[in-house]
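Go through this pair.

…
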Amino acid sequence: MRVTDFPPAALSGLLHGYLSIYSMVRVNPWLEEEYNTLGEIYDRIREIGRVLSNLVKDPSIHVEERVGYVADLMDCYLVYSDMKYVNTALDAAYEILSLENNGKEKEACRTPEMCRMLCSCYYFTNEEECARLAGELVKEWKSERRMIPVEIEWRWVRALEFYNNTMGYEKFSNSQILPFWENIPEIISEDSSLLTLYFDILSAEVYEKMRSR
């Protein structure tokens, strides 16, 4: 399927699934026979990045959705030539954070995507305030954990792993990611958002198992 055939809500799972595959093939080049060449996977990621670049600039999109697109666009960065994605995402991120500081979008910033966005802002700009705000979100979620849908749980586990990696803390154990494969049904729904969610989970599972060998 072309990237443009997917609805925006499905792009995050699609992107992160390909990022896991990219990491596997980069370390194990012989996997190109199974997953395509590194260049082909990279082109797919850049294709997703081009779509996200347009979405983060669209002021008609609700800010909570835009935060997710911004966080994902920053994740598209793989090589120096991708800095245009980072610059576009940073501009959008600081526009959103400015709205929050003015009290206009206060509740939009309590999501796992906001945590990832703040971590990326800290990574690329070294602004301590972004690290502090991300840490607050992590503490909030840990103290308020309850029964939530698997897709939200997955987003938070991803965000917490990203937070720990960015801040230099001990990485989450594989057990945080691996159990999610048990939630994937034998018959996959044709819903594209669920399809890409399962693609993301399965790709991460294979990658983590490969790393633990």
In short: Residues 192-211 form the longest helix (20 residues). The chain has a mean pLDDT of 87.
